Amino acid sequence: MTEPAAAVLARFIEQALGLPLPVGIRLWDGSTAGPKDGPAFVLHNREALRRLLWRPGELGLARAWVAGDLEVDGDLYELLKRISTLLWEREGSGSRTAALRGALSVLTTPGSLRAVRRTLGLAGVVLPPAPPAEEVVRRRGPAHSMHRDKAAISHHYDVGNDFYALVLGPSLVYSCAYWQGDPSSGSDNTVEQAQEAKLDLVCRKLALRKGQRLLDVGCGWGSMAMHAAGRYGVQVVGVTISHEQAALARERVAAAGLDHLVEIRVQDYRQIDDSPFDAISSIGMAEHVGGKRYREYADILHQLLKPGGRLLNHQISRRPVRDEGKYRMDPFIDRYVFPDGELAPIGSTVSLLEEAGFEVRDVESLREHYALTLREWVANLEAHWDEAVKLTSPGRARVWRLYMAASAVGFETNTMGVNQVLAVRTGGDGRSGMPLRRDFLGVSTSTSALA
C-alpha cells in the first residue's frame, strides 16, 4: 500500500527539525498530517514541494506562496507565529534559515536517507523552478547609489497609487499609526484617525510654528506635508524619488488649496541644496538608506538644519545580533518587498545621529502601534482582494498580504520595533531651544499654531 504523500513529507520535516510539525499540512492528493487544531499549509502541487526543497526556509516558502502553489488554511497570523522560531530567530550566524539548513544536513542515518529519497521521489525533483515574476533578481550598480536606490524605490512604491489607497485607506500614510487603544474598541478609533494623531504627534515634537520651513524626506503621497502646512502654517518641501508618489502628492496638495505652502519634488536627499530648514521629518525613510550610508544621511540632515532645528526620525528597528557584520535583510523582504532595504538596532541609530552632531532628546517606541496598524492594512487588502489583484497581479497582492501579516507578527513578538527619535542641532553655545519638560507629548491636536 502506497504511503500518503503528507505522511512522507511529515516524516522528512520532523527528522530534519528534530521536532513535531508545528502546523498541519495538506497535499495535492488530499492527504494530511500534523496538528489538526490549527492552521495548515496547503501544497497544491509538486511545484510547491520543489520550491521548498531547493530553497529550504523563508525564501522557498515565499516563492511557493507568491506563485500560488502554496496557501494557508486557517488563521495566517497564528501559522506565522507557530513557525516564527524556525524561520525568523537569529542566533549567531546572522541567518534566519541557517538553523533549518543545518538541520537538513543531519539527515545522514539510513532511516533519514530513506525519508530523503521518498521525499525527492514525491517531488519529482529536477531543475529548480523559476522564481515568480515578482522577485527582484538582477540589480545594477553599487548598493545605495542614486541609480540603484531609484530602481529599488520604484519596485516598491510604483505598484500603483490606487492599490496603495485601497490598502492604506484615505489617509495614504504608509507608516505606523498612533492609536488610543485597540481599533476594535470603537468607531472613534479608526486607522485614519490614528494616522492623523501620528502626523500631529510629529508636528508637536518638532514644535512647528507658522512661517517656519519644514523638510519632509521621503514624503510619500504628501500626507505629512499637507498636515504640517494645513494645521501649523509652515512652508514644506517634500522630496521623494517615486514619480508616481510625487504625481499624486501634487494633486492632493492642489485639491487641498495648499500649493502656496507645499512643494513636492522628485529629488534624492543627496541633491537638496536649498537649506537651511527649521525642522526635518524623516518618516519611514531611513530603512531605505542602508547601514553603510546612514552616517552620511545623518550628516546631510544635520547640515540642512538651522542651529536649534529639530529632526524627527521615525524608523523601524530590529533586534541586535551577536555578529552585526553577518546581518542580512530577510530574503523574502529583500527580493519581493524592499530591495536593498536594511534595518538597524535603535542603539545604532541613536549613536550615528550623535556622531553626526545631533543631540538626541527623546526616544519613543511605537512597536505595538505598528502591529495594530498592519492588521488594519491586511484587513483592507483582504476585504478588497479581487480589486487589489486587478490593480496589480495575483502574485503582487499575495506578496503584500504575506509581508504585512508577517511584519505584524514581528512587531507583536518583539522581533522588530519602531521608534520616533527626536534630535536637535544645538547652537554653537550648546543651547537646544528645547523645553525643560516633555510637555509636548501631552498637547492635543490644535490649530493654535496658526495664530
UniProtKB/TrEMBL annotation:
- Which terms does the UniProt entry file under GO BP? methylation
Enzyme class of the recorded protein, top EC level: transferase
Matching entries from CDD domains are given as: AdoMet_MTases (cd02440)
* Cited SUPFAM superfamilies: S-adenosyl-L-methionine-dependent methyltransferases
Q: Could you say which EC number(s) this protein's record lists?
A: 2.1.1.79
Top-level lineage group: Bacteria
Alphabetically sorted, this entry's keywords are: Lipid metabolism, Methyltransferase, S-adenosyl-L-methionine, Transferase
GO MF annotations, alphabetized: cyclopropane-fatty-acyl-phospholipid synthase activity
Q: Any keyword Iron-sulfur? A: no
What family classification does the UniProt entry report for this protein? Belongs to the CFA/CMAS family.
Protein name per its UniProtKB record:
Cyclopropane-fatty-acyl-phospholipid synthase
Q: Which organism is it from?
A: Streptomyces achromogenes
